[in-house]
UniProtKB/TrEMBL annotation:
Keywords for the protein's UniProt record, in alphabetical order: Coiled coil, Membrane, Transmembrane, Transmembrane helix
Protein name: DUF4349 domain-containing protein
Alphabetized Pfam families for the sequence: DUF4349
Domain DUF4349 stretches: 64-272
Coiled coil (residue ranges): 150-200
Species of the source: Candidatus Shapirobacteria bacterium CG2_30_35_20
Length: 282
């Protein structure tokens, strides 16, 4: 058996990897993505709308409308309990949960939670979340000024409302059924546009009042996103080297398991190939 494997090791590897590749492709095709929570979908849909909006000249308004987005990367002792604690503190401060997830790849607990906090309590919330951590790995605060977009929407709304008033006056003077139907269709279309503009305005207003905070949590700081620096960190390099060694050992173990499991396939295949070679030699 040992000699058989030594002589035909290349054929064995080719067969194993071919079978593994086919199985992996089948698994990917049969995988169904989970549906996303309502909060995420709502934010994503509005974000898409924001991307296709037209650009406008900067306004001179002194009352700027700014949407704050904050992210924290925290090393904690227990990811699951901290996620629950963050959600609880968020509710106490008048905010709400957008989404959260928890996973334990390679035995390292990690998770993400996104919340919305009243803008006036954002600094207080940030300090509370930092206190929960063993180590604050990184912090990022960004603001998006949507004053110009909001002003543009207000101008669109005024035009639509004036146009609607004109069509209402025309409706009062319409006599034929065809005229009535045409004017009513225009009024319905205008009202839908007005509702859409008001919805976008409301989104901007609520987003400015409620800051979004995304917290990345892990028991291992290497699993957290952070801004890389040129500073040499021997401890980080050592951890990465150890993790790479463990992954390589696991990979070798996985290959051996595959070889054993699929032996009923590759052993007969080797005998067939050798038999065919002998026939050709004769």
């Amino acid at each position: 058996m040992t000699n058989l494997i030594k002589k035909n090791w290349l054929i064995i590897l080719v067969i194993i990897f071919a079978i593994g590749y086919v199985n992996r492709k089948n698994t990917e095709q049969n995988t169904i993505l989970p549906m996303t929570g309502g909060g995420i979908v709502a934010d994503s849909v509005v974000s898409d709308k924001m991307l296709i909006r037209r650009e406008v000249a900067p306004s001179e308004s002194t009352n700027r409308l700014v949407i704050q987005d904050t992210s924290l990367s925290l090393q904690v002792d227990n990811v699951e309990s901290k996620i629950k604690e963050i959600e609880s503190k968020t509710t106490e401060m008048g905010g709400f949960l957008i989404n959260s997830n928890l996973s334990k790849p390679n035995g390292v607990g990690s998770g993400t939670i996104s919340v919305r906090i009243p803008e006036g309590k954002r600094d207080e919330a940030m300090e509370l979340f930092k206190v929960m951590a063993v180590k604050v790995v990184s912090e990022n605060v960004s603001g998006t000024d949507v004053t110009d977009q909001y002003t543009d929407l207000q101008a669109q709304l005024e035009v639509l409302q004036k146009t609607k008033v004109k069509f209402e006056e025309i409706l009062d003077k319409a006599y034929t059924v065809n005229d009535l139907m045409n004017v009513q269709q225009q009024l319905i279309s205008l009202q839908q546009q007005i509702n859409s503009v008001k919805g976008q305005q409301k989104y901007f207003e609520q987003s400015a009042k409620l800051s979004k905070i995304t917290i990345y949590l892990s028991t291992d700081d290497l699993a957290l996103p952070y801004a890389p620096t040129n500073e040499w960190r021997p401890a980080v390099v050592f951890k990465e080297a150890v993790r790479s060694l463990i992954n390589n050992i696991r990979g070798l173990g996985n290959i051996l398991i595959w070889v054993v499991v699929f032996s009923p396939l590759w052993i007969p295949a080797i005998f067939v190939i050798r038999f065919a070679k002998k026939k050709l030699a004769i």
